[in-house]
Amino acid sequence: MIVDAGLLAQYVVIALAVLVSAGFVARRQFPGTVRRLRIAIAVPMVRDGRPRWLRELGRRIAPPGREFEDACGGCNSCGPSKR
Q: Where, by residue number, does the polypeptide cross the bilayer (predicted)?
C-alpha cells in the first residue's frame, strides 16, 4: 500500500498535535507524576562517564529544583502562603 505524501504529512501533523495536547494535559493534571518521570529519564543521562551532549540533554530534561517543599507539591507556582 502506497501512502500519498500529502496524506502522510497530515498524519504527522495530527500525531504531533495529539502528542503536544497529551503532554499539556499531563503537565496540568498530573504535575507530580510528570516530575517523577522527568527525573527518572534525566538521572541516568547525567551520570559521570556519559558523553557531554547526553549530560547536557539530561540537565535540560530534569525539572527545576523545588523551592517550597511545604507547598502542595504540584506545579510549584503557588509558593508559600502569605499571612
A: 6-26
